[in-house]
């Protein structure tokens, strides 16, 4: 079992719709959870971090964490073509060690 | 703005060569990381460092070593480059010792070993 699992996609959504990206992790001791966005040919950049169960909202983005189910998700409301990218889920386990999923490619169709 | 700078954007090296990848950050971050990114495998942690002269193995340290002589600089060394080390290498840094702050990435070095 992979430590951090994501569906590779592509996930295609029409412009203006809600995009839902999911991630599961295997280590129950994981403490911090991150969503990064990576445009093609570019480096990852952080868009959300979440540390406790529940929802965290930032603009059009909402991160959701359920530690009992070992599940973290990212919702993007009012999706725009500029949101088309690969979204990487990352989990901190242990001291400083951050493990990334393989990413989900999102395509927003105009 | 935090800046993480990797010394080269593209590198081509021959099998068996010793290769140095350099990374410098300008925000006095304690933590620095080296990842490689391959299609279908995602970002995999090679080594990280949480202080000068300190290093910890990541998930795939074999064939690599690192050096952190100064806080701002973290070097990745391929002792004897092999074709399976052809990859995109990404350096990152972060501030907090408890890991609860974001990592900032450099622009990446695409290494080809021939």
Describe this protein with a few key phrases.
heterodimer, A: 110 residues, mainly beta, six-stranded mixed beta sheet, five-stranded antiparallel beta sheet, 11 strands, B: 114 residues, seven-stranded mixed beta sheet, four-stranded antiparallel beta sheet
Write a concise synopsis of the structure shown:
The complex is a heterodimer of chains A (110) and B (114). Chain A contains no helices and 11 strands. Chain A has strands at 4-5, 11-14, 19-25, 32-38, 45-50, 54-58, 61-66, 71-76, 85-92, 98-100, 104-109.
Describe this structure in words.
- The complex is a heterodimer of chains A (110) and B (114).
- With 110 residues, chain A is an all-beta fold.
- Chain A has no helices and 11 strands.
- Chain A has strands at residues 4-5, 11-14, 19-25, 32-38, 45-50, 54-58, 61-66, 71-76, 85-92, 98-100, 104-109.
- In chain A, the strands form 2 sheets. In chain A, strands 2, 4, 5, 9, 10 and 11 form a 6-stranded mixed beta sheet that branches.
- In chain A, strand 9 and strand 10 form a beta hairpin.
- Chain A is globular, with a radius of gyration of 13 Å.
- The termini of chain A are far apart.
- Chain B is an all-beta fold.
- Helix content of chain B is 0%, strand content 54%.
- Chain B has no helices and 11 strands.
- The mean pLDDT of chain B is 92.
